[in-house]
Each structure stands twice: as C-alpha cells, then as structure tokens.
Amino acid sequence: MARFDLQGSPVSPGVGIGRAWIPVEVGLHRIPERKLVSETSEVAIDRLMAAHKRAIEDLQRIQSATTQELGIQDAAIYGAQIAVLQDPDAHRNLERLVHEEKLQPESAVQALLDKFEGLFKNLEGGDRKNWVADLRDPWLAVIRELGSAEEDRVFESDGSGIVLIAEELTPSLVTRHHRHPLAGIICSRGGRFSHGAVLARSFGIPTVTGIEGVHAKAESEETCLVYGDEGRAVLGATSKQEKRALGLAEERRQVQNALAALAIEPGRTEDGAPISIMVNIESPNDLRMFDPGISAGVGLFRTEFAYMERPAFPTVEEQAKIYESVLESFEEKPVVFRTLDIGGDKQLRYFGHPKENNPAMGWRGLRLSLEWQDLFLMQLSALVQARKHGDVRILLPMITTVEELRRSKELLSQVVGKAEPPPMGVMVEVPAAAMALRDIAQEADFVSVGTNDLAQYLFAVDRDNPWVADLYQPYHPAHLRVLRYIARTCNALHKPVSVCGEMAGQLPGALFLAGAGFGTLSIAPPFVAEVKAVLQRVSADSLRQLANRAAACHTSSDALSLLQVEADRLWAEVVESTSESRS
Ligand code: PEP
Ligand code: MG
User: Fold this and answer.
1) Rounded distance, CA 349 to CA 583, Å?
2) Is-catalytic flag, 224?
3) Which pTM value belongs to this model?
4) Any idea what DSSP says for residue 256?
5) How many whole angstroms separate alpha carbon 404 and alpha carbon 338?
6) pLDDT, tens digit, for every residue of 133-158?
7) At residue 128, what are phi and psi to the nearest 5 degrees?
8) Which of 146, 174, 196 is the endpoint of a domain?
9) Domain residues for 340?
10) How far apart are the first and last CA of the chain?
C-alpha cells in the first residue's frame, strides 16, 4: 500500500511519475519536522555547515560593500548577524538535533528558531518581536542556502522524474523550475484557473492541487504519482502502482505521438470550415518544448513573465531581443504580444506593488501601464523595434473602457511617428467591456477573449480562492451566453475575434467556442493536437447546434455534461483511430 493516496483537484492533465522534491520555501511557512531518511547525520551536518559557511560569506560581502558605500555604522547590523550565526551554543544545539534527534538540517534550524521564540516569549517588555527577528533572519539565510544547494543537487542528477511538492502553486514556483523536466507538481493550494495552473498546463506538467498539507506529508525522494486528469496524488507509491502508472503514461504518449502528424495540419472541422489554432506562450524558452509549425502563430504571448524572471525592469533592447527571438521562430506567422499584465498574483520582485484590499479589481494590467506611461512607452518601443523580425500584434489586457484603447493608440502613434502602427487589439476580460463591445471593437484591430478573468469578474469569484472555487463556473450558461454574444458582435463587425483563456484548450470548451462562432482559438501547446483531432471529427453545423444547446441550459453542470459527453465521444473516436499506428 502507498504511504498516502490523496484526492485533490485536477489542474493539468497527464500521468506524472517521479521522486518527491520539496523545495524549501523560506518565509512562506514553517519548515515541517522531518527526520533523516537516507542521509547519515554526518553527511547532514556537513551539508548544514557548508550552507552556514556560504551564508556567512554572503553577509561578509554585503558588510564590506555597505561599509564602502554608507560607512561602518550602517554596516554594523551585518556584523551582528554574523555574530548570531557564530554562536557556539546554537551550533551545539544544531549538532544535537541532527545527531541525536535525527532531524534533517532544515528542520534542525527551524527547531532552533522555535527555541529562540520560546525563550523570548517569556521575557517581559522590550521590543521582543524585533529581537526574535534579529536572530531569525540570519538563520533563515542558512535555510535558504540549504534549499538552493539541494535544488542544484536534485537537478544535477538526471533531472527527469522529479515531482515538485509545495504549499502553493504560484507562477514563480512553476517558472522557477520549468526549464527542468518536471514529472509532476502537487500542491496544497492553487486554483484551477490561477496563473500558476495556467503555466503548469502550458508546460504540460501533470498537476494536482488542493491537497491540504501535502508538503508536510511528503518525504523527500519517495516515489510519487500524479494523476492530473483525476486530481489524484500518490505519495510513497509501491512498485506495482508505479508500474501501472508507467503503463498509463506510455499509452498516453503513444496516442500523442500518433496525433503529432495531425498537429501540423491547419485546424478545421469535419466539413472543412477553418478553425485557426494558435498557441499561448510565456517565454522564448517555451519554444524548446514544441514545434511552432503546429500552430497558426502565437495568439497570446504573456510578456509579464519576461519581466518577472529578471532582477529589474528590462531595457527596450532586452525586451526587443526577447520579442525578436519569438518572431523569428514563427517566421511570417502573427505573434500577439500582450502588454504587461501584472498585479494580483503576478508581482515583480523589484517593483513596490501597493497593498490593495482587492488586487484583482485594482491596479493591474493596462491600468498600470497607462499610469506608468514611461514603462508602457518602453514596451511599445521594443515591440515596434521588433517588427523588423515578423508580424507583431499588440494586445491590451484588462480593457474596461474605450477611452483606454484610445489613449493606448495615441501612445503607440507617438512611438511610430508617421509610420503605420502595428495592429492593436483588446482583451475582453471585464464584463463592462463585453457589454460595450460594439463601441470598443469598432476602434480596435482585433479582439481576444480572456475567459479566465472574464469568468472571475462575471461571477465575482476570485480565480485563486479555494473557498469560492465552486462558484467559478466558466461553463455556466451565463458565461456561455456572454461568449456567444461577443462572437456574434465581432463577426457582425467583421472584426477578427479569438479566445485565449484556458477554456479554449479544454475539449468541451473548444467545441463550444468553435460552435459559438470563434474562428480562432489560442491554447497551450500541449493541447493543440487533441483539439485539432476532435474538431476534425465534427461538422460546423453540429458544433453550432451543440453550442446553442449548451447556452440554453439552466445550470453549469447541465451545460458542462452536455459538452463533456460530446467531447468524450469524439475523443474515444480519436483514440480508436490511432490504435492502428500504435499496434
Ligand atoms: C485570461 O484572463 O483568460 C487570460 C488569457 O489571461 P491571464 O490568464 O494571463 O490573466
Ligand atoms: Mg487575464
């Protein structure tokens, strides 16, 4: 029997098999008490001392730089922090915790911090909180050092087959590790439509969330299984369970290989009506994971990740270089660059985001760009500069009013001067923009619907909040009707319209959207082949009828099951059709 067989929420499909790795997320939570498993206490102490040495060297570096720049007085704090780390009593304690209590080094440091906290709790008066912080901060640096050394070690060994286990599925967690071949992700928290989830799907990493305390339950290096379609996670799997999972993963891979040839063909329905399938990407690195030939171009390049991965705002040249490399990979095909969409759960380390009570409804997306126009003008300049390398289209996130579009167009014309500006489109994510679409679309060059946010705002449900996740219903007829209205409005105005939200990459969603009149779907690369294969098995007229029936339902579950039944039926046909090439 496995150590734990747990049910959570499905976030990204596929079967993942690998060794557990629980990165140390310093400051996010207490380090759980973990005992040594395969490591001896001598090796563990060596690892701890090496991290301790690096933390001290780091502090010494900062101390001497501060002395030079600001003087000895300002640098004194670092001397005090070094002294905290050199306390012989603390060292004796740590050695005992590792040797006698067999705690892993990270847990031993946490136990030491708990001891400090306990001591100060009983003291009267004074600035107790600050005293604890003075002792805690340097030791947290040691934990951080332990974590990054462990990260290097984990990915140095063959790298494949690692299941990442963490408390929260944040965008930075996924992007921090996405260059490594992760086999799966299991988290306690993280909504299905959160940005972390969007990224996990985009990288094709089987992911499950909603398993309370999983980071504390898991043991480093144990075999874990991630069933992304069912939302199931197995910790400490038996060899029989592992074998079965390997068989399922292999079967899946074979179907995908069999569909690979189809992915290169343009998307169309059974009777030949074209449905353009584009891809959503976040970074030029994504291009290592799929062949751009499978898509009609990029329907959504989320430029914020180029900002999130750096220590400071990228310069115009740095941005242009990133944009150009994507354009070159897609040759003549269009690449839709969405301008910076930060705020909410997408934060820049180097930018002091204001504290807002309701950040999703606050200062994010285009609102921020229009206020920080210097930043916006830099991005527009980089995009205009990159135009020499391909077909640049600019997409504005979080449009609420037509005036925002007008202001953005003015700024773009300042950048291009007398030259022809690149096409500028709007994202429909705010219900007001959907209802005023006729006015907005007339002045835009194209429209792209962000269903992830549109559903969030339509249902007044935070897409990241597990407490209200049940009410986040992209398949609710209210949302389906708004989507159908958007498609009809744009088609009547002959305005190109697409959907780049997650629904477009789900089979029931793709069926509905194609039937509702969206001629372009932009989806995460791993789903391109599946969506094309399913659309190819159904006529445009059947799709229209199906979409109308779904929109006429009264509840989300009715509409979803109607679409799901059809998606399952078509998918079964697709799998059946590949069986010949697999046998
Ligand atoms: C959306 O909101 O649907 C969208 C595509 O943008 P993001 O998920 O990045 O907010
Ligand atoms: Mg959005």
Assistant:
1) 51
2) no
3) 0.80
4) H
5) 15
6) 777 888 888 888 888 777 777 776 65
7) -60, -40
8) 146
9) 276-525
10) 33
